[in-house]
Write a structure and sequence with these properties.
24 helices, 71% helix, 0% strand, Citrate transporter-like domain-containing protein, transport, transmembrane helix, transmembrane, membrane
């Protein structure tokens, strides 16, 4: 895309700068309005400055991603009430040797789960749980939140369903699921291990944590933690209040008067077992649907509505748990990024560097990786993939057919790991940040600088280690 007019480039850059400043410093003294309002402000500025038209602004809002986030939050609430976190906590705490061992387990579980459930899904579901897990053991929240966000991004790189940009790449490149997985899996496993080691090195002293005996005792308290997260059930008086918020869906709370007659004939234990089993079964079905290529957003929405219907209750308490401010933030971000792309600056950067970015040499791959890292953090990774995918593949086609496949996989790997560079690098980072800040218990504010101190070295090292491993396994 060619550069727009000077006025459009300047005004678009100003609007994007407002978004960047408000995202990095959500409580700046001259405008302490927060990230969500800051994203809306920058989106409005893009329209006022005529960088993007109102119709284009609406079109730039990625409804499939918003639908996926919304449905994931609903499904996460039902899984929480079905006891998933109690079992996950038991798994993480089983024979744990302290905070360092626990951090490693969080990294591995998150990375592997993100490859199947998507990185955004894992971050939505696991953030509050990780905060509880750390607080229960008197461990600092920061290393565990960094482990969650960074491992989710790295793990999601391995499959076409791991994140939105991989979906775009898989669709445009026509690379089959097994070939995509095997092409990136070695890099993902190596990157996960290196990221984990770097976290341990940086926070070794902070993770001294509890003794094994204490962890065994704490493990017996996981059910209490689960109840604390999920059973903030309102009083009868609160049920009549239209202002009722802040408690989770009453999936496990008995109110037989609202049940279907079939449930009324069952014992309490059978009803609970049925609802828990159904929550797990439909979630597994959701993952299988992802793997066979069904639409991710509508699959998640279908799963969420199935859980709501089978619960046979008013869904408002469950829907109150959805972080609507996060959805508004993403809407503003989509408009802002789309406007910034229309200035032509991201395209100009690529056009200038393209001759030096050939995938048939170490130098070319290095330059290409640097461009992807920068653009993914300036213009977001999905627009970067849309912008660069065809150009990179066309350049690789002049070398060999195998180079085309490897170029697509390199783009998937680098654009995904680039999300760990800064807090604004990926949606998963922002989800962890906002979910942790708004958590009803043990809330923690993961700042831009806290993330950057770890994110920059981790991203550069993990990216460099993974690149030589891309495409080494062929099918």
């Amino acid at each position: 895309m060619a550069l727009a007019s000077v006025s459009k480039v300047v005004l678009g850059s100003i609007a994007f700068g407002v978004f960047w400043v408000m995202a990095v410093f959500p409580s700046v003294p001259f405008m302490p309005i927060g990230r969500t309002a800051g994203a809306l402000l920058s989106a409005v500025l893009m329209i006022i400055f005529h960088v993007i038209s109102p119709d284009d602004a609406y079109a730039s809002v990625d409804l499939p991603i918003l639908g996926l986030l919304f449905a994931t939050m609903v499904v996460g609430t039902y899984l929480k009430n079905a006891g998933m976190f109690k079992h996950l906590g038991t798994l993480l705490a089983w024979k744990s040797q302290g905070g360092r061992d626990l951090l490693c387990r969080v990294c591995v579980v998150t990375a592997l789960a993100s490859a199947l459930f998507t990185n955004d899904t894992c971050c939505v579901v696991l953030t509050e749980f990780v905060l509880e897990l750390a607080a229960e053991r008197n461990l600092p929240a920061k290393p565990f939140l960094l482990a969650l966000a960074s491992s989710a991004n790295i793990g999601s790189s391995a499959t076409p369903i791991g994140n939105p940009q991989n979906l775009v790449i898989a669709f445009n490149s026509k690379i089959a699921f097994p070939k995509f997985l095997l092409g990136i899996l070695p890099a993902m496993l190596a990157g996960m291990a290196v990221n984990m080691v770097m976290l341990l090195c940086m926070y070794w002293k902070d993770l001294a944590g509890s003794s094994p005996d204490q962890l065994v005792a704490n493990g017996k308290q996981m059910e209490a933690v689960e109840e604390g997260l999920a059973s903030r059930t309102p009083s009868p008086g609160q049920l009549k209040s239209p202002k009722l918020t802040g408690y989770s869906s009453p999936l496990m709370t008995e109110d037989i008067s609202t049940k279907h007659p079939w449930f009324m004939q069952c014992t309490e234990e059978r009803r609970k077992l049925f609802l828990k089993s159904f929550a797990y079964i439909v979630t597994v079905g959701m993952v299988i649907a992802y793997m066979v290529g069904l639409n991710m957003s509508w699959t998640a929405i279908t799963t969420a509505i199935a859980l709501v219907v089978v619960d046979f209750r008013d869904a408002e308490p469950c829907l109150d748990k959805v972080s609507y401010s996060l959805l508004v933030f993403f809407s503003g971000m989509f408009i802002t990024v789309s406007g910034f792309n229309k200035t032509g600056l991201p395209g100009a950067i690529w056009n200038f560097m393209a001759p030096y970015s050939k995938v048939n040499s170490v130098g070319g791959i290095s330059v290409l990786s640097i461009i992807i890292l920068l653009l993914s953090n300036l213009a977001s990774n999905v627009p970067t993939v849309l912008l660069m995918g065809g150009e990179v593949a066309s350049a690789a086609a002049l070398i060999s057919p195998a180079a085309v496949t490897r170029s697509w996989l390199l783009l998937a790997w680098v654009s995904t790991v680039a999300g760990n560079l800064s807090l604004l690098g990926s949606a998963a980072n922002l989800i962890v940040c906002e979910q942790a800040r708004r958590a009803p218990r043990n809330a923690y504010d993961l700042t831009f600088w806290n993330h950057l101190v770890f994110g920059v070295p981790s991203t550069l090292i993990v990216t460099a280690i993974g690149i030589p491993l891309i495409g080494k396994i062929n099918v």
